[in-house]
Amino acid sequence: MAQTTKVFGESVLRKEDDRFLTGRGNFVADMLPPGTVFAKFVRSPYAHARIGSINTAKARRLPGVLDVLTAQDLKDQVGDIITAWAIPNANLKTPAYPPLAREVVRYAGEAVAVVVAESPFIAENALDLVEVEYDSLPVVTDVETATKKGGAPIHGDAPDNVAFKWTLAGGDVDKAFKEADVVVSQRFVNQRLQPTAMEPRAAIAQFEPGTRELTLHVTSQNPFVHRLVLSIVLKYPEHLIHVIAPDVGGGFGSKIPVYPWEAIVCHLAMRLGRPVKWVEDRMENYVATTHGRDHVQYVDLAAKKDGTILGIRARVLANLGAYLSTAAPGIPTILFGFMVGGCYAIQAGRVEVTGVFTNTTPVDAYRGAGRPEALFLLERIVDILARKLKKDPADIRRKNFIPADKFPYATAMGLTYDSGNYAGTLEKALDKVGYEKLRKEQAEGRRKGKLMGIGLSTYVEICGLGPSAVVTSTGFAGGLWGASTVRLHPTGKATVYTGGHPHGQGEETTFAQIVGEELGLPVVDVDVVHGDTKLTPYGQGTYGSRTTAVEGGSIALSARKVKDKARKIAAHLLEAREEDLEFTDGKFVVKGSPKAAKTIQEIAWAAYMAGNMPKGVEPVLDATTFYDPTNFVFPFGCHICVVDVDRETGQVKIRRYVAVDDVGNQINPMIVEGQVHGGVLQGLAQAMLEQSVYDENGNLLTNSLIEYLVPTALEAPRIETDSTVTPSPHNPLGVKGVGETGTIASSQAYVNAVCDAVGVDHIDMPITPEKVWRVLQKK
Amino acid sequence: MATKRKKASPKRKSVRPENGSHMITVAVNGRKFTRAVEPRVLLVDFIRDDLRLTGTHVGCDTSHCGACTVLLDGRAVKSCTMLAVQADGREITTIEGLSEHGRLHPIQEAFKAHHGLQCGFCTPGVVLAALELLRVENAPSEDRIRTAISGNICRCTGYQGIVDSVAAAGEMMRPRKG
Questions:
Q1: CATH number of A35's domain
Q2: ipTM
Q3: What does the pLDDT average to over A83-106?
Q4: CATH number at residue A618
Q5: Which candidate, A58, A368, A381, A472, has a CA 20 to 30 Å from the CA of A759?
Q6: What is the CA radius of gyration of chain B?
Q7: Is A127 on the interface with B (CB under 8 A)?
């Protein structure tokens, strides 16, 4: 049967969709093993307090309650939570992060006790019966107050509330500022956000006393990281821990960290000998699942009169919350500082980041993780420069872009950008939006009092994490290679075992496309297995837009190894020389004799029967690859937002949103576009709506979807997408990453548009109608 | 808002078993279930835990995210905002009830064809909310679609794929003329 094997680059419909569309997804909360008991956590209503006594007697007496544990009970059983990103040369303080609060609670929502009961209702009722005495301490939630002299210390070993001071510098920054004709400066607040994956976090732990195996089903983006950290925290052998992350309902970074309560349910399952299930509700999610962003930034840009940018400086206070979450120290430093030069050939830059402890929920990765904070400050300050010099924001970008013929390009901040054509995406986006015409309309409208704004955002980001030697040199406790096994079965069907763990990104399909393309198999014949530490090779999971570039690269290499082996077997079976074989449409054909051919399925059968194998070739048709890339990948693009502002109310309406992205080769353009749509809306959400708010006592006011404004379909604009293709030169597929590009690009496109419309240097996010109205009142 | 209440068994009395539970009968996806439920049990928990139909999800508990949306007598409701006992004698459609004989419903086909889902968690609720609209209006404008699904939060898609899916589903469900 003839089959189309050209599947790379096609918008193949997703293999994973049917199960979700029919209600047959398998999320952690859907599971209910026989005998399951339910854990709930007593959480502190105080943001900072000394714990007096904890009386669990009444709760224990409630019928159906099986256990109530406090920090005292976990001593020597569940260790402190560890940080996996110990950034060097920053005097990093790592105060104890106890699984349940010991003596002091440091944020509202920190767990002080756990209750286990026969039903979730009983557990919930028992929470109210646990009596905890709190003696309140001074509370600080914002970084500027926390670092003032005399501020109340949160940890004894960080008396000034400073977790680290990290500096990155490149080029002669002082000279750049000395030689500048113009320096523009601005304070930016990149506000705290709540990731809000629609699936709350959940965990079910089971212990098998016979084999001593501990199995944890958990909402994780990286099950092997969970297994490793849990083995350390629980002091339990890694090979006896089985972590499964089944279908995961979005993560956006918030399901990377290993959380204390995941370790605690494991402990409880071993202690009670019953499956223990914990599912958070949204309110718990908002206080107890990590938050993102939360920078205060002081930025200076030095330039010549003609708009040439000479240097950039950023002093940043990054809020880390009360404890250091798994990747927390690396987000506002490594993933932030290196990118402050963006698309521009800036020869000098200095970034100084102070990580700050506060009485707030720990902060960790959130979609983009450091890069949105960098690109926002850069693209905003460049617009402020353009305004100051009365230059077109497009011209000032054109003037400073790294030219397309200069790649690979070594930046002043110390990276080597792999490939790029920044002017290419800018011009395409300008063309698509009809820039000249819009500027004309804007000028005419202004005379009539109409406020229309055009916001440009040109970005480049670092992803595809990453070469292990580089990431481990930044203190990250984990190589970031890709892992895969590609296995053909006797009937010629294939299974791909990947170390990535897609949770919405569609790699069950794109990875099948990679193998389909390499081996000439229909996508339907390729199954992708992920998220189970007993099935796949040791893998790093899915985050940092790494999965397609790194895990996908590994899969391509495994598939090519399979093909090489298949060629040997085919040559043997056809009694031909390997170099005389051609591989087309899933079969090896002897050049010039089209009838002398073996299909990949026939070869798989032969490889398993193994009665007629070439000398020295092992039976079976599979291959495993651990692929460590030589560099990161650097996707880029230009987003343009066009807004109309109502002068009377300050209401902003998005008229157009154009996104031209270059993510290298695209395996599945439909999925790429979907990633852009979702990413853009998350960035726009930050610009328009979202913001975590704490009161003066450290209570999170935005603790439900009533207060925390996630956009609905009514706030979401239609996004016009397009792309250019500049392949990455260094990975097997020429692909880059796309999961975070939209978020990294879009906030500043919106803010630039609003500032352009109302004629002001800056408005902090989220841009509410009130803020716009107040700016307009001053004019 | 007036919805006709179809009684599954008109003469049935509210039976009170010893533990304070009520006996209820609901028709779910065309099949009748009679169960004893505690008065405090939410409809969503009844559907998920008692009937083990786990395609209906819980994303917030405060009726804002819409992941728990089901059709109750044809109307989209958030099943986390209703008690199971309030569903006594009524008809419920969950996501599991849409496809027939292994064939996807047109709205499911459309979501697949137009990339209307990514992680899949909000999807069942979005599909049912949209289906309520399409059953009364088969050529809705984009604004109508966006309004109809505005009670359902999706964090992955930016809604564009969803809106396009619903529009395409409307077209597929429209009766052919001539």
A1: 3.90.1170.50
A2: 0.97
A3: 97
A4: 3.30.365.10
A5: A368
A6: 17
A7: no
Q: What is the pLDDT of residues A346-387, one digit of tens each?
A: 999 999 999 999 999 999 999 999 999 999 999 999 999 999
In angstroms, the CA A246 to CA A28 distance is: 7
CB contact under 8 A, A24 and B55: yes
Q: Tokens 């690859």: give the residue.
A: A625
Beta-carbon separation of A674 and B121 below 8 A:
no
Going from the N-terminus, what domains does chain B have, and what CATH number goes with each? Answer: 22-97 (3.10.20.30), 106-173 (1.10.150.120)
End-to-end CA gap in chain B? 34
Inter-chain CB proximity A712 and B40 less than 8 Å: no
Q: Do residues A514 and A566 share a domain?
A: yes
The distance from CA A274 to its chain's CA centroid, rounded to whole angstroms, is: 34
Does residue A252 sit at the B interface (CB-CB below 8 Å)? yes
Residues in Cβ contact with B103 at an 8 Å cutoff, skipping those fewer than 6 apart: none
The minimal CB distance from A13 to the residues B65, B113, B124 is found for B113
pLDDT band at A6 (very low <50, low <70, confident <90, very high): confident
The span from the CA of B24 to the CA of B13, in Å, is 9
Least CB-CB distance to A22: which of B108, B113, B118?
Answer: B108
Whether residue A637 sits in one domain with residue A535: no
- For the stretch A695-716, pLDDT in tens is 999 999 999 999 999 999 999 9
Claim to verify: residue A502 and residue A557 sit in the same structural domain: yes
**Chain B residues closer than 8 Å to A719 by CB:** 158, 160
Place of tokens 């607040």: A189
Instruction: From A508, A575, A518, select the one nearest A548 (Cα to Cα).
Output: A508
Task: Compute the average pLDDT of residues A412-429.
Answer: 98
Report cis status (omega within 30 of 0) of the bond before B175: no
**Do A528 and A451 share a structural domain?**
no
Regarding whether A505 and A423 lie in a shared domain, the answer is no
User: Where is the domain boundary, A288, A313, A336?
Assistant: A288
**Nearest residue, CB atoms, A704 vs list B62, B123, B147:** B62
The predicted model scores a pTM of: 0.96
Number of domains within chain A: 3
Give the distance from residue B157's alpha carbon to the nearest chain A alpha carbon, in angstroms: 4
pLDDT at position B174 over 60: yes
In chain B, residues with a C-beta closer than 8 Å to the C-beta of A23 are: 53-56, 94-96, 124
- Tokens encoding A525: 């014949």
Is the domain of A453 the same as that of A524? Answer: no
**What span, in angstroms and rounded, lies between the C-alpha atoms of A599 and A597?**
7
In a domain, A300, yes or no: yes
Please report the pLDDT score of residue A5 as a whole number.
55
Interface subset of A 270-329, CB within 8 angstroms of B = 279, 281-283
A6 is a domain residue = no
Taking the Cβ of residue B141 and every Cβ of chain A, the question of whether any pair is shorter than 8 Å is answered with: no
> At which of A579, A610, A627 does a domain end?
A627
Residue A505: domain span:
17-22+481-627
Q: What percentage of chain A reaches a pLDDT higher than 70?
A: 99
What does the pLDDT read at residue A347?
Answer: 97
